[in-house]
Amino acid sequence: MTDDLRPEEETAVAADDTSGTAAASEAAATPDTAEPDASDSDAADSDSSDTGDAADQNLSDDAPDVTTPDATTAADETTDVEKTTDETADDDAADDETTDDAADDAQDEPVDEGEVLFYEPGGSWWVVAIGPVLIGAVLALEIAGPGQVHWPVLIIFAVILIGFSLVQVFAARTHVSVRLTETTLHQGTRSVPLEKIAEIYPVNNGAEPEKWESARALGELPAVPRRRKGVGVKMVDGTLAQAWARNVDRFRTELSEAHLAAHINRDS
């Protein structure tokens, strides 16, 4: 009995081993879907993110550059304003240049002041001859004398005397000259139109000094030059001044007549 059951038990054990082996093979062949791998999930997410960024970048590159109409209009208006401003500045500069040129031309054009009624040059050129005359006299004495001629000393003195005389005469003729025409009074380098003189005062024969006698002199000098006398005048703005000349009596007469004639011509 025992011997008969042994082959059957061996067959059952063999069948169990066979079914276990088959089950193990099926389990090995079937993938584990319950717990996915974390590394595979992260890689998939990274690939998806890269794909989305690339798509956004492509959309950004392909999108057209759209400028709003308001911005374009404002830019055009700003450009037009700048152009207009530049053109206006250029026109103003051109007008200024034209005005300056016209003023220069007007100054260059000679003005007809009429006849010269009175003139004093202020200095005479014969003063320059004093130096050479003195040097010539000294040179003649040295030549006639027993001693030698001192040429260096004579040359130095000649240069000093002639140079000083030239400077003195030139300054006198520039700053102390008087010229009266039908329309203008020239005192030194300054010119005063006769129309700007409101009144000419007569000679002060009284003991008390007049206000005009302490007034400033016409011209660039602060006071009446030496060896000249003043003529009191009142300007149209109310200020007092002194016109001056060496021959003051004749100068006052000519100035009064020219002043009256200038005002008559202005009113007519």
Describe the structure.
This protein has 6 helices and 8 strands, in the order H-H-H-E-H-H-E-E-E-E-E-E-E-H. It is of the alpha+beta class. The strands form 2 sheets. Strands 1-2-3-4 form a 4-stranded antiparallel sheet, covered by helices on one side. A 4-stranded mixed sheet has the order 5-7-8-6, with helices on one face. A hairpin with a 2-residue loop joins strand 3 (184-187) and strand 4 (190-193). Among the domains are: 116-175; 193-267, no CATH class.
Name the structural class. alpha+beta
Give the % helix. Answer: 55-70%
Shape: flat
What is the H-and-E element order? HHHEHHEEEEEEEH
What are the SSEs and their pairings?
Blueprint: H1 2-29, H2 38-62, H3 69-108, E1 116-120, H4 130-144, H5 151-175, E2 178-181, E3 184-187, E4 190-193, E5 197-200, E6 216-217, E7 229-235, E8 240-245, H6 248-267
Parallel strand pairs: 6-8
Antiparallel strand pairs: 1-2, 2-3, 3-4, 5-7, 7-8
Helix pairs in contact: 4-5
Which features characterize this protein?
6 helices; disordered N terminus; four-stranded antiparallel beta sheet; single chain; alpha+beta; flat; four-stranded mixed beta sheet
